[in-house]
Amino acid sequence: MTGQVRGVQLARLLGQWHALPGRRRSPDYAALAGAVRGLLADGRLPLGVRLPAERELAEALRISRTTVTAAYRHLRETGHLASRRGAGSWTMLPGNHRVASTGLWTPLDDRDMIDLGAAAPAAPPQLLDAARAAAEDLPRYLGGAGYHPTGIIELREAVAAGYTARGLPTSADQIMVTSGTQHALDLVLRLALAPGGSVLVESPTYPNALAALAGRRARITTHGLAADGWDSDLLLGSLRQTRPKLAYLIPEFQNPTGHLMPTALRERVVAAAHAVGTDLVVDESFVDLPLDGTELPPPVAVYDRHSRVISIGGMSKPYWGGLRIGWVRAAAPQVQRLAAVRVGVDMASPVLDQLVAVHLLAHADAIVTDRRVTLAAQRDALLDALAQRLPDWRVTVPRGGVTLWAELDGPVSSALARAAEEVGVRLAPGPRFGLDGTLERFLRLPFTLPAADLVEAVGRIAAVRYDLDRAGRQRWREPAVIA
């Protein structure tokens, strides 16, 4: 169990649960049960959480208890609720389903699934050669224990050289290698944020960052991004008014919107953070992926004079997520403190993986250049398909990164994700990128798959989008019966 949700909390998450726009009205109990399944499907309602008592939810929704009773019974029949007399009811999934990496429930047999939930590309062809070269280098390390809490020196020097080339002089002592960017964020939060501390994040933002903050029981406030990116006055005003302990920002091709923070704002946000005592955690996961010749502003840490900026990055987006190599760039004393925190978590990153990363970074120019060309072509194919099949959707063309942030023609993101799952397309709906179930008018669409797959996916999405307005009642997968 992960806890209990109160009646007023569940009512707020459910929102307008009676019916989707343009659809024939279903019985209230069925609509309520469907809405709860929807919350489970897009991850806003966790598995194993205890739902409010029937009377409490009925009062919160201002409906009859009979309706809630029937909805709970329906959820038990479909395998989404387990109840025990006198103890309550807990959320679950049917026995033939699992939770995917996007948080969406998915059948175990999904061989025909086009996965637009994960914004990460396949491995580059150079990976095999890098792995072979790394295996040849490995004997140099076999005589030691293999524990390098800050990372092997070759990789730290290579990462430091990358920062220096971007105009931010960096030494190997300022780098700690981690097991991916998410691991880097987790370690920074363990060091810099006490449980219950205040954090400012963009809205929308990276869902796994929100999960990491929830794990620290952080008090989260948000700065909403506009269609063209950050509102300077609002962002700086939020820093000055809330005075958070940390602010988590994605300035390079923000996930999911693709926005690029301008130079002037980078300098101002560092000055404002110093003035109010806020540490900035800057996620640079997409910094290697400008498209169309976009010029990158200087790193945010260039303007840091007081060790307020901690930069995190990794190889998942420009190279391969399966490599699990990330890093932290900070002041050398901060790196040593992070290493001390890390010893209680996982000791060190695998030496062989780090050696593979060294060889990939040695060929970064060729690998990343090819990656940019491929991504630009796939982005354009996705844009063309959306313009043809879903012309009412509004999309700002990103100048880098790997995702489009689409504004839909109605607040149907979660419903669309559920419907798309039925036709073999996995989506990450807008609410996963915000708090409290907002962003239902938005959908993140990565362009990391081959162009043909993206075009096919848009065709399937378009078909189910139109069906949402015509269908009388949602179809839900039932648990498999084995006799």
Mean pLDDT: 89
* Rg estimate, integer Å: 24 Å
Helix residue percentage: 25-40%
Largest sheet: 7 strands, mixed
Strand order of the largest sheet: 8-14-13-12-11-9-10
Describe the protein's architecture and organization.
It contains 15 helices and 19 strands. The chain is of the alpha/beta class. It has a seven-stranded mixed β-sheet with strand order 8-14-13-12-11-9-10, sandwiched between helices. A hairpin with a 7-residue loop joins strand 15 and strand 16. It is globular, with a radius of gyration of 24 Å.
Summarize this structure as a short list of keywords or feature phrases:
483 residues; alpha/beta; seven-stranded mixed sheet; four-stranded antiparallel sheet; 15 helices
Layout: helices, strands, pairs:
Layout: E1 3-4, H1 7-14, H2 28-41, E2 49-50, H3 54-61, H4 65-77, E3 81-84, E4 88-91, E5 97-99, E6 105-107, E7 114-115, H5 127-137, H6 153-165, E8 175-178, H7 181-192, E9 198-203, H8 207-215, E10 219-224, H9 232-242, E11 246-249, H10 263-276, E12 279-283, E13 309-314, E14 326-329, H11 332-342, H12 351-362, H13 364-389, E15 394-395, E16 403-407, H14 413-422, E17 425-426, E18 428-429, E19 442-446, H15 451-468
